Amino acid sequence: MAIVGGEAFGWDRAVWGNHRAVVEVDHHAPAVWVRLPWRRRDPSPEQVALVVTTADGAEVANARALSISRDAGEVAFEPTAGPGRYHIYYLPYDSAGTYYPSTTYRPAAEPTWQPPEHLIEARFVAFEAVAEHHAFGAMEACASAAEVAAMLEARPGQGFLVFGEDRDQPIRMTRDVPLAWTARAPGRPLELVAAPGEFRVFQVGLYAARRDLGAVAVCLDGLPWDAPDDAFRCFNLAGTNHDGRPLTHQVSVPQGGVQALWCGFGVPAESPAGRFQASLAVEADDELALLPVIIEIAGEAVARRGDDEPERLSRLRWLDSNLARDDTLVPPFVPVTVTGATLGVLGRTMRLAPDGLPASLASYFAPEVTHLTEQPAELLAAPVELACVRGGQPIVWRGEPYGIDSANDGAVAWSRASTADGLRLALRGRLEFDGTLAYEVELAAEADVDLDDVALVLPLARELATHMVGLGQKGGQRPESFDWRWSVERNQDSVWLGCPWAGVQVSLRDERYRRPLNTNFYHSRPLVLPRSWHNDGAGGITIGEHGGAVRLVCAGGARHMAAGESLRFDFRLALTPFKPLDTASHFRTRLCHRYLPVGEVAEAGANAIVLHHAQAPNPYINYPFLRTDQLRAYVDEAHAADVRLKLYYTVRELTTRAPELWALRSLGDEVFAPGPGGGYSWLCEHLGEDYLAAWFDPTWEDSSLVTNGMSRWHNFYVEGLAHLAEQVGIDGLYIDDLAFDREIMKRVRRVLARHRPAPHIDLHSANQYNERDGFASSMNLYLEHLPYLDRLWLGEYFDYNSPPDYWLTDISGIPFGVMGEMLQDGGNPWRGMLYGMTCRYPYNGDPTPLWRFWDEVGLADMAMVGYWSPNCPVRTGRDDVLATVYQGRDKAVIALASWATEPVEVGLAITDRPADVAFQAPAIEGFQPASAWVARESVRLEPGRGWLLIVDDPLQGGPGTRLAAGPRLGT
Q1: What is the DSSP code (8-state) at residue 617?
Q2: Whole-structure pTM over 0.85, yes or no?
Q3: DSSP 3-state assignment of 775?
Q4: In sequence order, what are the beta bridge partners of 494?
Q5: Separation CA 948–CA 662 (nearest Å)
Q6: How confident is the model over 8-58, as pLDDT tens digits?
Q7: What is the per-residue burial (b if ≥16 Cβ within 10 Å, else e) of 79-98?
Q8: Which among 118, 253, 459, 545 has the fewest CB atoms less than 10 Å away?
């Protein structure tokens, strides 16, 4: 008997499937028959094989189905073991794949055995499932057509019927009436027991008996208290969307269909014990049905509305949460400043032209990206322009200059309205504290008009726009010219241009933007191409050098606009770097990426544990609330040893073990992405259709579904994080690819900052530059989230033999103010040290020898001066051998790494230092042997390797001098 995830299996499901009927043969007979009243929900049971076995598992060869329907099956077989127990397995399948399995049900075979004319009847005893999780519930037993007809005959003239169900019997089917409903009268009173302080959840089943239903409405009257914050709500009909806007759903049910309406109401904590009756009204297309609801208040008051007990389903109200939806700052960011036309955020300023577009984008980040300087670098060579051309001439807009609409510490917003002959242009801009600048631009035609082009033009300083990421271009040096066109096959709508200390990402959208799915699932829900920028293929982006500047031109192309037509040319500029690199925190935070005893983690030198899913305290993917006591105990043990604990918790997929699963399924495709179904056998047997199967973990038998790009589930996620931080004490998050936008990311960071000291968030992504993922750069795809991350882990399929500029822009995170680690094949430790990167213990290597070296030399207290900085005091004279310097008070560390394809010898040129400076290479296990040189001697480097050298000189005072802090703009 196999045990998976703590649950015992009754037989080998790989051989027999998950379900069987138990049959008893009472007498000796050459052949028997039995009727199986299974009420199956699979659409074509006659096409699926049946397997008969003896009690000890020997297959009975002579067996055949006499008749098979969804209502029942009649099976004849030869009882080869005589009287006794037999098993009939009726859903045997074959499975292929491990983490993304597929299930194929074995087809019914042509019968070869002809039973005798006279058969003895065997006794049906029971249906059994291989494990409790697989059992079909009462809400999955289908009523027969005759039973449904009899139910309707007793209620002539009713267009629909309603059935009250408590939360513990979730309605699972949408195309079949549950057998239980035909055995009781529709509209029978629903009896609920609620605790004081609880948010009480229940459901109403709606059966469209005689016609299609539309415009469904639900209300509950008779609650004996006035609690507006906990007023009755139906989650299927209305709520608060992920963006804070009111959400309404038009629920419609096709004739013959079943819809679960999940509802809830709050009970005040001071409510006395008692019993009362309320009335729930369901209306659809001017027909009304009433359902009495008897509510008994009993028991002790519950804490936190019942959220500590998942089976209460009180957390469903989290779907409508507004938690942390505000403009409050999070460290290290500072308030936005407004000084005339100049707006300031941490390390960056923007000056607005009268038309509301940027005339200046300045960065105060030092080339090292570790601090700010007093002299800015100007990214723009000329003001940003929204160039509208008609008849070969630029359109001249008339109107007042922009005006500030609102300003607070977190954001400033402005707008401008302007006109030209037959056209109106409305511009709204908003700069947030992290340096993200969003524009909504609406162009409206008052009369028919032909336009040559509508283009966003960014003239960038050539000496700063040296690197590029995005639009299918692998990160690295910017090409001299570039021409790109929209394609739904590619997950591409943005590009970053710049250098490590000054850059901008430009993203193009319209009002229909919907976040695509990512990581294996992009083609299931790809980009919605913006009508404005795409323009039926006429739009595109070009990059080229003109007049000493690099011109980024995002063109919509020629088009005709009809009178009354409007288009949204929305775009977003993300000004980078977002924040200074916190090298001290980076080198002091050592991550253990495995569920290990805390003592072993601390002994290895790690001080933070990443607890993945599929581990005992956190067994199920992205819903880590089901073993809270065990999780809290592990967190407490870690904290007692001064080890922090970060949890795998994100939203891309959701375990089918979630208690809220059926309520979320009842919301249609709001939370779960629609798809072809399939996947693991549990999904096939209990969900049926219209879903996208996701990750499966065989150890815990954890199947999951892909969630939609953005939905109210993200509100639930933010509330769940607050619960974990406050009640369990987790210190941060490990996010495995991001399936939410920056608005949710801000809320995530705020929640952690409010509940935990110095929270830590890291992001892992596999390389998404492939056909399946739409040839997306992971760095560019997630750039909007980088202000709120503490570490990157990129990742599977990243090629660490790529050139240094690819490392810099697509792997390291340094141009954006965040640092990272390596994953694929353990990375390259020598090249990694140029960027402060190691592998992660003990998942894909052993960084502990390097950690010990860091501690011995005090690397966390040194100033990192990367090879990309003009201030780096050490040069090798080769483009394929690079040096990064870590400057301390009395010594320095030089990291050398080679990209040369053969062994090379280099001499190290050190700014303003004598030629006989001595270098010591200490022995570091698995990294380098001990050695020593002086500057005039050549250092030999093997292909793909390097050195860490100690110099008894801080190598400061020349161009590498580090300013202590620089101005903190916005203070």
Answers
A1: T
A2: yes
A3: coil
A4: 507
A5: 56
A6: 899 999 999 999 999 999 999 999 999 999 999 999 999 999 999 999 999
A7: beeeeeebbbbbbbbebeee
A8: 118
